[in-house]
Design goal:
Blueprint: H1 4-12, E1 19-21, E2 27-32, E3 38-40, E4 43-49, E5 51-56, E6 59-64, E7 67-71, E8 75-82, E9 90-96, H2 99-108, E10 124-125, H3 128-139, H4 144-164, H5 168-175, H6 180-193, H7 201-207, H8 212-223, H9 227-237
Antiparallel strand pairs: 1-2, 2-9, 3-8, 4-7, 4-9, 5-6, 5-8, 7-10
Length: about 240
């Protein structure tokens, strides 16, 4: 029997040298030799072959095959990908995170995150159960008549497996209306809409319903940048 990573690689090899729409809601795949600087939207990204590095603020995060990471809010980043070999390009799949789907799932399950929780953007090894769900999801690329019924179910399963892992706390916080992710997301959305304008931190802290000190701390823990760095990165990408 073909192992899950090998089967996923075989399916994703059909992708274009960019983010490729699979026809499945919120699911994309990539087969690439390079990537551009961009604003990454909230997603779960699973590396299948090669390695990916993300430079976010002053930090560099590195991801290898079989590992996934979460982007909790819109984040401007510099990406680099490295093929496994000359004839083995970078391969990955991603799931754009729908907060309504996560919130509904959380109301139906009682899955507490593990004791050891990872920080934002940290790499986590995908469990066998998550890989199995991804295989069944990607098989639907060639079965559009089944996708309407099965894709939403498998999306929930992938998210359920992520909730069980060390990034589960981040997913939970993203879906909470009063969570720090929601509060910081409110600010990042404002900065994205006003990135050419000067701003003061105090109104942003008020927008996030935090003190200035708490806002600085949480903003950097979620985005790996200060608000000013975030704005400067957006300007560089425009």
């Amino acid at each position: 029997m073909e192992n899950p990573i090998a089967e996923l690689r075989r399916i994703v090899m059909s992708a274009q040298n960019t983010w490729t729409d699979t026809g499945l809601p919120r699911v994309a795949m990539v087969c690439a030799e390079a990537c551009a600087d961009q604003v990454y939207q909230p997603m779960l990204h699973l590396v299948l072959q090669g390695t990916k590095s993300l430079s976010i603020g002053d930090e560099v995060f590195r991801y290898t095959a079989g590992h996934y990471f979460l982007v909790p809010v819109d984040v401007p980043a510099t990406g680099q990908i490295h093929a496994a070999a000359a004839d083995q390009p970078y391969l990955a799949v991603s799931l754009t995170l729908d907060l309504d789907v996560i919130a509904t799932l959380l109301m139906e399950v009682n899955t507490a995150p593990g004791a050891a929780q990872s920080a934002c953007f940290q790499a986590v090894c995908a469990s066998d159960e998550m890989l199995d769900a991804w295989v069944r999801m990607m098989r639907l690329v060639d079965r559009p008549h089944d996708a309407g019924v099965l894709a939403p179910m498998i999306e929930r399963e992938i998210l359920y497996r992520a909730l069980q892992g060390s990034l589960g706390g981040i997913l939970r916080d993203m879906a909470r209306p009063d969570g720090r992710m929601t509060q910081i997301r409110r600010v990042t959305q404002w900065i994205r809409g006003h990135y050419t304008e000067p701003f003061r931190v105090e109104p942003l802290a008020l927008m996030s319903e935090m003190s200035v000190a708490a806002f600085y701390r949480h903003f950097k823990s979620v985005t790996a940048m200060t608000p000013i760095q975030y704005q400067k990165r957006l300007r560089l990408l425009r």
